Structures are given as structure tokens and as C-alpha cells.
Amino acid sequence: MATPPATGMCMDASGRMLVCIRTTMNLPDGLLEQVRARAAATGRTTTSLVEEALRAHLDGPAAPAPSGPLPAYGNPEGRFLVDMEDRDAVWAALDERP
């Protein structure tokens, strides 16, 4: 039988009980320090501050797609530079340094 995800009880702003899923995120130390300091300065939990920031970001306008052409690699004439069926040639191409 599968183990259910770890959950905890949370309250939303109106006091209703919610079921929250715990997760792990890897954040740069400096960013986490800023979040903890802001949370402490405003009398909030780190979790509530991160949740609010994520909601504000996701509710905002979507980031525009990158403009301009995507980078292209290889022969401008469209010829394959490596025979993909030749394993040794593929590894040799991967081992090349620019």
C-alpha cells in the first residue's frame, strides 16, 4: 500500500481549515535569510510569506516568451555533423570542447 503524502493542517485567512502538503525547496541561503528576516519583521511565518509571494507571482501576468531567434548549432547548410548511428562518433563529438 502506498504511503500518503505528508500533510498538515493549515488555516486560510478566513479561519477555515485546509489540508496542506509539505514539500522541500532548495533556495539560495541569502534568499532564505531575506525571507526569514521579512517574516520576523512583519510578525509572520516564513511559510505564510512564501505562500503569499508565490500566489502574487502566479496571479500576475505571465512572463513574455523570449523574443528573437533561438540559438542554432551545427552546419548552416543543414547537413548532419555526426552520424547518430555511429556511437563512437557521437561520443567523440560530445567530448569536444568549444
Notes on the protein architecture:
With 98 residues, the protein is an alpha+beta fold. It has a domain at 27-59. The chain contains 3 helices and 2 strands; from the N terminus they run ββααα. It has a two-stranded antiparallel sheet with strand order 1-2. Strand 1 (7-11) and strand 2 form a beta hairpin. Helix 1 packs across helix 2 (46-59).
Describe this protein with a few key phrases.
2 strands; disordered N terminus; alpha+beta; elongated; 37% helix; 98 residues
- Rg from Cα: 24 Å
* Main beta sheet strand tally, sense and closure: 2 strands, antiparallel
Shape annotation: elongated
Largest sheet strand order: 1-2
What is the helical fraction, as a range of percent?
25-40%
| Total number of helices | 3
Model regions low in confidence, pLDDT < 50 over at least 5 residues: 1-7
Question: Structural class of the secondary elements?
Answer: alpha+beta
Q: What sequence of helices (H) and strands (E) makes up the elements? A: EEHHH
State which percent range the strand residues make up: 5-15%
Number of separate strands: 2
Distance between the termini: 51 Å
Integer average pLDDT:
79
Q: Mind sketching the topology for me?
A:
Blueprint: E1 7-11, E2 17-21, H1 29-41, H2 46-59, H3 87-95
Antiparallel strand pairs: 1-2
Helix pairs in contact: 1-2
